[in-house]
Specification:
single chain, about 550 residues, alpha/beta, 2-enoyl-CoA Hydratase, Chain A, domain 1, 3 domains, 8-stranded mixed beta sheet, 21 helices, 17 strands, binds zinc ion
Length: about 550
């Protein structure tokens, strides 16, 4: 008999099964995401009737003649009506054709033996050959013990197929669901260009019980859950199932557009040179209501999707970034993010990035290069974060690697100083083809206060230091170190976000249009020359 009611494994509330079905199988009381069969997942994610299955009948031959494996397979087959732990095929999400593969946690814990590996690899190779984006939904305990090292090698096989898919500039979105562990997490699951997860899914390498036994300690609440992984830089996004299809569709849309930017004819008005006092400019650059990067991103661009994490240590809140459209054209946009009040500023580390922030930015910039998207960076930072953790994780190395790698990215880069351009912390995102500055922003090797206390041994001398350092946009334009000054509203950028954003947008338009006429070699040469030609000497 078919069950009518079901108890939520999360909170214990009982609901009609049909009720769950209407809610994407998510508990309305505790947001618990119920485990689904592959066919239900495909139904929720893709256009009705569009799924065409590959290799339905491939099945295992029990290569090691492993004790009792045969029996386990029979049970799994009976339970799921499938012959393997994965379904693969083509489908449509919105109007986009994709190759989709979904693992089945109910079939021997979704473990990967030779058949799962083979079906996945064939699906990936099909996507590569037909130049299609790939989506893999995981739910797995890892490699399948009953197939020994044959199973282990499927990790290498699927990963190698993904590398070929990636080398063709194709998109792979990995969707992690509860649970994703072991050899599956340590191979294809964590190789997505974009990695998203369902809320509260268990995701990790070793199972929590193994870890607990090994270290002999109780594990903290939330350990190895999606939210823990996001915090530790491993995920781009956590998405509720109800919103997932539209987010995936938007990601596919941005990766599908090839829009040519139209030329821009209107010129920016020249910035006033009325404000001469550097301390006045500095006060405006640091104004508590100065537009933040996120405010500017949301006003200048459309369809912004924020991505998180450096895939190594953490998600730095002082750096935001993701993909968006600029006048219909896909771009990668990254910003150093300050807060608007004390609470936000603590959360954002006052706009001072840690090494993981620079590494997140570089990860997103490399992705931009892969998908041939221009990069727009918005800079507003007092400097890179000075702290013990930042040193332990290699702050200097992180900035240095950005300088090196940014010099070699084969897409246009525009960096805009919107507030404080604080030293190496700002330069770490500013090795660009065009460096632009808002009228009342500053760019400096050290804060005037820092300079005054080192050279004058007196912080009260900071106006003298500020003047001597030549940190205003006007000074830097005169020295030939920046390309343009973007005008601000009369009272400063904080007085009118929309007007400020419009001016920045027009400036990006002019410069981006020009950069898009250049090929990769020309872009690299122009960027090289720009910094190579900073040469002031006598001989
Ligand atoms: Zn519940």
């Amino acid at each position: 008999m078919r069950k009518l009611f079901m108890k939520c494994p999360g909170c214990g509330t009982t609901h009609f099964i049909n009720f769950y079905a209407r809610k994407h199988y998510v508990c309305p009381d505790c947001n618990y995401h119920l485990t689904l069969s592959p066919i239900e997942r495909i139904r929720l994610l893709t256009k009705p009737g569009s799924f065409k299955e590959f290799n339905k009948d491939i099945h295992t031959i029990d290569p090691l003649v492993f004790p009792n494996y045969d029996n386990k397979l029979k049970v799994a087959h009976k339970k799921t009506h499938n012959r393997s732990a994965v379904k693969t095929g083509t489908a449509k999400i919105g109007k986009y054709n994709v190759v989709i593969s979904v693992l089945d946690a109910d079939f021997m814990m979704g473990s990967m033996g030779a058949v799962v590996g083979e079906k996945l690899t064939r699906a990936i190779e099909y996507a590569t050959e037909h130049e299609l984006p790939l989506i893999i939904v995981t739910a797995s305990g890892g490699a399948r013990m009953q197939e020994g090292v044959i199973s282990l090698f499927q990790m290498a096989k699927t990963s190698a197929a993904l590398k070929r898919h990636s080398n063709k500039g194709l998109l792979y979105i990995s969707i992690l669901t509860h649970p994703t562990t072991g050899g599956v997490s340590a191979s294809f699951a964590f190789l997505g260009d974009i990695i998203v997860a369902e809320p509260n899914a268990l995701i990790g390498f070793a199972g929590p019980r193994v870890i607990q036994q090994t270290i002999g300690e109780k594990l903290p609440e939330g350990f190895q859950r999606s939210e823990f992984l996001l915090e530790h830089g491993m995920l781009d996004l956590i998405i509720n199932r109800a919103k997932r299809t539209s987010v995936i569709e938007n990601i596919l849309k941005i990766h599908n557009i090839s829009v040519q930017l139209k030329p821009k004819t209107k010129q920016l008005r020249k910035p006033s040179t009325a404000r001469q006092d550097i301390m006045e400019i500095l006060a405006l650059a640091r104004h508590k209501n100065r537009p933040t990067s996120l405010e500017l991103i949301q006003t200048i661009f459309t369809d912004f999707i924020e991505f998180h994490g450096d895939r190594a240590y953490a998600d730095d809140k002082a750096v935001v970034g993701g993909i968006a459209l600029f006048k219909g054209m896909p771009v990668t946009v990254i910003g150093l993010q300050k807060g608007k009040n004390t609470k936000e500023n603590i959360y954002r580390h006052f706009g001072m990035a840690h090494p993981e922030g620079y590494r997140k930015a570089l990860r997103l910039m490399r992705q931009a290069e892969k998908f041939n998207r221009p990069i727009i960076n918005l800079i507003d930072t007092p400097g890179a974060y000075p702290g013990v953790g930042a040193e332990e994780r290699g702050q200097a190395e992180a900035i240095a690697v950005n300088l090196l790698e940014m010099s070699d990215l084969k897409v246009p880069i525009i960096s805009i100083i919107t507030g404080e351009g604080g030293s190496g912390g700002a330069l770490g995102l500013s090795v660009a083809n065009k460096v632009l500055m808002l009228e009342n922003s500053t760019y400096s090797v050290i804060s005037p206060e820092g300079c005054a206390s080192i050279l004058w041994k007196d912080a009260k001398q900071s106006p003298t230091a500020a003047k001597a350092l030549k940190i205003s946009a006007f000074d830097l334009l005169k020295l030939g170190l920046i390309d343009e000054i973007i005008p601000e509203p009369e009272e400063g950028a904080h007085a009118d976000l929309k007007l400020t954003a419009r001016n920045i947008s027009e400036s990006i338009h002019t410069h981006l249009y020009q950069l898009l006429t250049m090929n990769a070699n020309e872009l690299l040469q122009q960027r090289y020359d720009k910094f190579r030609n900073v040469a002031f000497y006598g001989e």
